[in-house]
Design brief:
Elements lengths: L16 H4 L3 H30 L12 H32 L13 H35 L6 H14 L15 H13 L1 H15 L8 H23 L2 H7 L3 H31 L5 H27 L19 H31 L53
Helix pairs in contact: 2-3, 3-4, 3-5, 4-5, 4-7, 4-8, 4-10, 5-7, 7-8, 8-10, 8-11, 10-11, 11-12
Length: 418
């Protein structure tokens, strides 16, 4: 429906611009988001019912895969947060076409109400995106370290804590909107507090790797990259959380850097880790380790060249959401940093060529993979056996009640990838 016009209101759809802008593309944007919300909610209900009512025999919440724990909390966030955004989109549509004035300041409406409704969904949406990646990392690290996961219960409970606290931080996006200090202070405290369960995960992952026989194959490389980049994203988020620091950094490229260290350095690297970890099982073929390492190297170098540079741009006051900076004469000295970020973006994009080439190579020339391509699973890492499910397909962590020693791996040596 591009011929109806662009939704030229930015991805946040801030009012009153989104109320008065006549483009039909905005109406399509609203309808499209509503349809996506319905789909997401239906999917969340399906996942939750499956996890609560249709677990395999022998699987309880005490030995549930940490990846499934992350999906459980993620779908809970989707189920609780999406209707709030849907309500905001509905009243926005009414303001545009229904002669109402919920969000229009010209006739007594409150445009700030849209920001509350939007960010109440959109900050939990960050965790909706990153929690599944955290679950992937909780599966990859113990397997590639050949050790049971350290602190299974702590990681599971920290996932729940992140989900709970994520509903109490949305106002930190609105510290500069004129809210009273009594309204801002609790949200600043919760924003700082949400770093605690994230830190619990980090330390448990590090403890899992400590003393392990680590295989630095592609899944582990991307998992380590995830942990490293997420730590940087978490630290600069804590740095910005205090209200006095948020004021000068709000809507600058510092925020862009923070967001991408969490979402790309976290979510995307986690997805790549999971892809290389499970792809041999999905395709029955082994990928090229050499191409995977080139993919990892270019991704990490390009990513940091782009987004680490943006920290300095933000500290110098370079604003975001500006498409032409030629009129900002006081920012001309930042040309070198912007050039470096642009070069990094090209490197980051070029790195994905190796990823696509690896997929193609795997299907054309990849050697047949063993059922368990990552070697034997120590007996103490086994879950209770589920009828019809081979041992190598079971989730990997020590059971909270001492673990099970049933079963043995059916795999041998994994083929050496070029």
């Amino acid at each position: 429906m591009m011929w109806l016009g662009a939704a030229n209101i930015g991805w946040t759809g801030y009012t009153p611009l989104s109320v008065y802008e006549p483009s039909r593309g905005i109406d399509m944007w609203i309808v499209g988001l509503q349809l996506l919300g319905i789909s997401s909610t239906a999917g969340a209900i399906n996942f939750l019912v499956t996890i609560f009512r249709h677990r395999a025999p022998g699987i309880t919440f005490n030995n549930l895969s940490l990846f499934v724990w992350s999906i459980l909390v993620t779908q809970g966030l989707v189920l609780l947060a999406t209707p709030v955004l849907a309500g905001g989109l509905f009243i926005l549509l009414l303001d545009r076409h229904g002669m109402t004035a919920f969000l229009s300041p010209l006739v007594g409406g409150d445009p700030i109400m849209w920001q509350h409704l939007f960010w109440f969904y959109s900050h939990p949406a960050v965790y909706i995106m990153i929690l599944p990646a955290m679950g992937i990392i909780s599966e990859v690290i113990p397997r590639m370290s050949h050790k049971p996961i350290f602190g299974y219960k702590a990681i599971a409970l920290s996932t729940v804590a992140i989900g709970f606290l994520s509903f109490g931080v949305w106002v930190h996006h609105m510290f500069t909107t004129g809210l009273s200090i009594s309204a801002r202070l609790p949200f600043m405290i919760i924003t700082l507090a949400i770093a605690v369960p994230s830190g619990i995960k980090i330390f448990n992952w590090i403890a899992t790797m400590w003393g392990g026989a680590i295989e630095l194959k592609a899944p582990m490389l991307f998992a380590i990259g995830f942990v490293t980049m997420f730590v940087i994203g978490g630290i600069n988020g804590v740095f910005q959380a205090p209200i006095p620091l948020d004021y000068p950094l709000q809507d600058t490229y510092w925020v862009v850097a923070h967001l991408h260290y969490v979402l790309f350095g976290g979510t995307i690297l986690g997805v790549f880790s999971g892809f290389y970890f499970w792809f041999p099982r999905m395709s029955k073929r082994m990928y090229s380790e050499r191409l995977a390492r080139w993919h990892f190297g270019f991704t990490m170098i390009g990513f940091n060249a782009v987004f680490f540079t943006m920290h300095f741009l933000g500290l110098e006051g370079m604003p975001r959401r500006i498409y032409d900076y030629s009129q900002f004469y006081d920012l001309q000295f930042l040309w070198t940093l912007n050039w470096l970020a642009t070069l990094g973006a090209f490197l980051l994009g070029f790195g994905q060529v190796f990823f696509l080439a690896n997929i193609l190579w795997t299907f054309v020339k990849g050697p047949v993979s063993d059922p368990d391509p990552w070697g034997e699973i120590p007996a103490q890492m086994h879950e209770p056996r589920v009828p019809g499910v081979p041992v190598y397909a079971m989730p990997i962590h020590a059971m909270a009640n001492g673990g099970s020693t049933e079963g043995s791996s059916e795999s041998g040596e994994s083929p050496r990838a070029p």
